[in-house]
Predict the 3D structure of the following.
Amino acid sequence: MAHISGKNGAVLTGTAGDGDESEITGIKSWTLDYVADALEVTDFVDAGVRDYVAGCTGWTGTFEGYKDGAPTAIGTKVSIHLQESDTANQMWEGDCILTGVHANTSFDGVVTYSYDFTGCGALTVATA
């Protein structure tokens, strides 16, 4: 399996492909948690062995980086594009709400921001 470098990763907001996208500058990393609920359906027939069916899916994540301009507004729904590399199909996309911003400042360091987001609806999964 080929490995890819994250050096060309990015976080963009706006509508993909229509020129409305804008990169959130200063970002150096992002994480994404895409999960599905496992709903228990164990009954007497299962003889004490738990059984599950798939439930709803959802996604959340964070991104962080150096302060480069005003912080991105929270509490608003935006389209987000989490780019793994500079290859077009290596991007996760969907609508989300930015739910938190966390500023970090120290006398001997660089000002950083981290953001939390929660997905709203479907997530387009990155491909090879």
